[in-house]
Amino acid sequence: SSVSITILDAGRRGIGGRLSGGRLPDSGAAFIRCTSANGSQLTRVLSQLEEVGILGRWDARFGLLGNAGGGFLPRQVLAKTAVAQMMKQDYNQGNMGGVDFCGLLSGGDAPFYVGMPTNASICEGICRLAGAEIKLGTKVISAHHLGAKGGWELRSQSDSASATGPANSEVFDALVIATHDPVLAAAAVRSIGPDGAHTAAASELEQQQLGALADALSAQHAIPVF
Fold first, then answer.
1. pLDDT tens track of the chain, all 226 residues?
2. pTM to 2 decimals?
């Protein structure tokens, strides 16, 4: 059976967050690249998006630019030096304050991808292929699990509606949350009750795990992103 997808996005210009760009094309995120050893699934997705023309490979040039007329040292040359090994070690140890904070200079052959024709078209193209309905300018206020009935009730506020007016309420069979608001995500997790568990022991374990997840999400509220 087919799946009907609805995307609620608080953004006004388009979906995709930084990929949708700012006031200038591709000013939010310049490219997509998967360098993780555990990222094989994402690598396959990127390859599929390339096959259907949503992504294209970018022959990017990265390197070090010397001061006082020192010239440009490409990453392909830099990768063979001891300096690159030091930067790679810093990056692998999580030192994001180093010169190579994105791991772009210290080697690796993972391809760089950009959207065709712009990065703003990446999420639009994915949604078009999936037949997804997109509701821009829509902020989700709360997400509540409906227990034994199944599904989720989402309350949202549209930009076009009055701030003092009633929130819109919709029910969905399943929910995927992608938000920078950990409080919203934690509240959604805490709304999941014990109704779906087969046994009392399973219910207790599930509630413990959900509680731990909600606590972890709530803790993220105090961690700065930048």
1. 588 999 999 888 888 888 887 777 788 888 998 877 666 889 999 999 999 999 999 988 888 887 776 788 888 888 778 877 777 777 667 665 566 767 777 656 788 999 999 999 999 999 999 999 999 999 999 999 998 888 999 999 988 765 666 789 999 999 999 888 889 999 999 999 888 778 888 889 999 999 999 999 888 765 555 4
2. 0.76
Give the dihedral sign, CA 181/19/90/37.
positive
Question: If you search the block for the tokens 């009730």, which residue do you land on?
Answer: 153
Q: List b or e across 139-175, with b for residues whose CB sees 16 or more CB atoms inside 10 angstroms.
A: bbeebbbeeeeeebbbebbbeeeeeeeeebeeebeee
Q: Enter the tokens of residue 163.
A: 């701030």
Neighbouring C-beta atoms of residue 78, cutoff 10 Å: 18
